[in-house]
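step=encode ok
step=design start
structure_in=
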């Protein structure tokens, strides 16, 4: 609960750096893109068929996909426990940057290096200590 309290007071810029650092593995990002499409698809079906449970189901499945990708692929904790609102906004932002081909340059702009799995990261990347603390496995 303390982590959520701190996260709710965290400036979005700090959260964004931690978010991108927690999504270095392309497979994790791919799962998030698929999860985002699933959530949007569920919302579209809910509007089309006028059944609210489609939206709830789509968003629920999307959250499960995104959260489990952190445990199974990235080996860290999802930031939904830190700030769920910032997490949702950051997921959409990451998807948009990926679709427009600007995600790699965003990693570089923030000093996070190349978006790749942690084992291939360059040591001493600025700003990763705080992000690693927030996202390390439980």
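sequence_out=
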């Amino acid at each position: 609960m303390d982590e959520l309290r701190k996260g709710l007071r965290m400036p979005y810029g700090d959260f964004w750096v931690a978010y991108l650092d927690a999504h270095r593995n392309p497979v994790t990002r791919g799962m998030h893109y698929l999860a985002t499409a699933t959530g949007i698809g569920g919302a579209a079906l809910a509007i089309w068929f006028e059944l609210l449970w489609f939206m709830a189901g789509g968003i629920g499945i999307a959250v499960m996909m995104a959260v489990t990708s952190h445990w199974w692929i990235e080996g860290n904790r999802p930031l939904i426990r830190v700030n769920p609102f910032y997490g949702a906004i950051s997921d959409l932002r990451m998807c948009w940057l990926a679709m427009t081909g600007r995600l790699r340059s965003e990693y570089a702009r923030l000093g996070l290096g190349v978006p790749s799995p942690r084992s291939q990261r360059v040591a001493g990347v600025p700003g990763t200590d705080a992000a690693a603390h927030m996202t390390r496995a439980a």
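step=design ok
step=annotate ok -> Residues 104 and 115 are 7 Å apart (CA to CA).
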